[in-house]
From TrEMBL:
Spans through the membrane: none
Organism: Candidatus Pullichristensenella stercorigallinarum
GO BP of this protein: allantoin catabolic process; purine nucleobase catabolic process
Entry GO MF terms: allantoinase activity; cobalt ion binding; zinc ion binding
Native organism taxonomy: Bacteria, Bacillati, Bacillota, Clostridia, Candidatus Pullichristensenella
UniProt KW keywords: Hydrolase, Metal-binding, Zinc
Family note: Belongs to the metallo-dependent hydrolases superfamily. Allantoinase family.
GO cellular component: cytoplasm
UniProt superkingdom: Bacteria
Protein's recorded name: allantoinase
EC code(s) of this entry: 3.5.2.5
SUPFAM superfamilies referenced in this protein's UniProt entry, alphabetically: Composite domain of metallo-dependent hydrolases, Metallo-dependent hydrolases
Pfam families: Amidohydro_1
Cofactor(s) of this protein: Zn(2+)
Amino acid sequence: MYDLVITNATIVAADLQYKGSICIKDGKIAAIATDAPEAVDAAQTIDAQGLLAFPGLIDVHAHLGERGEGDTESVTCSSKAAAVGGITTCVDMPTNQPVIKNAEILREKIRYMKEECRVDHILYGALIRDNQADLKEMAALGATCFKAFLSYSGEEYTSPNMYEARKAMQEIAKFDGIASFHCEDFSITSGLDREMCEGKIDDRRAFLDTRPVSAEIIATQNIITLAEETGCRTHILHVSHPDVAELIRRAQERGVRVTGETCPHYLRFSEDDFLHVSSLYKCVPPLRSPQAREALWGYVEKGVLSCIGSDHSPGTREQRDDRLHPVYELGNGISGIQTMLQTMYDLVVNTKHASPTIITRRLAESPAKVWGVWGRKGAILPGFDADIVLLDPQRHWKITPESLYYKNNEVSCYIGLEGVGYPVLTVLRGNIIARDGKYIGENVHGEMITRL
């Protein structure tokens, strides 16, 4: 007898859709039945007639937050939000307090993530100026990848120069880890930031001008050059512009071990939203022109940008209030982990008129392969974890603060957005953890996932 069978589902694989019943036992997908559902014996059955079944999504770029104290986003809140949105695995960034820069700090994060995170998680370590000697030990603890900011990111999260990045990539290549980079040139962005702050220029267009595409292009090309030299597996984070994606495409053609991601906000919004609608669209790299947005989509379709991540970066009301701060002092980042699937489905199917299979490729299969967990995550196949999200393709939605599980649920540029196609059920390792916009998995905790 199976523990759970989801019958009559339209299963959305990476390259096709088909009708089937998903049979689950001991947290794993035991079988896919294409015969009559009444022939399947199960302790619990869910009829998914009219629903699409996707693999549980993998968010390759999330800042889940801190432990539960204070006004800042907490791991518990953001991971519940992820679950409601159909995300069953998060790749969590090392931008915590303190920064995850050595094994001792990573051990503590592993401990509290086990207690507080409600979805499975893959953990980053930080790559900073002076921690090359710490990388191997963090990898031994299970850190799969290491993130560097090439632009300024605070006094503790120091930005490596190219010499330091090269040394780190040589070290990471020895244990076949992944070096990931926020690619904006330090000297360009720091100089322009300084001019804006010293001049007290409170203007949204002026902020965009401090983060030119040239800064993203220069930093990306430098890192690709180092990736080609060192052989290090390299991942370019949150690509905002097609010219950057083109550099990645050319490198991939040469056999460089480089992958890239973009984010829903770079595919759905543009700089016009930041300029004319709300400062809540402020992020780095910034939103680009409508023309760049449309061209970027082509690199997602082709698989040059093989992953899509939310870059969920929640801020407090005070940090993001442009009535209290000039634009250059406002926090950066977009809260979007809960809404990623529904907004991407609406964009892909209802706006782009593309197949929903691209969602499986960019939000499940490719992330699992890049992060080395394919075989356990990323597909609805026998032997894989029973991570499944059911989506109603006819259900209309409108995003409201009340619908969001974020601690600061009023701080999201997605509020007010409407669309069609909504996740109605999330299953993590055979456990139902969310239903109809509500988190119901209080007895389920996420597991740390390491490379297979």
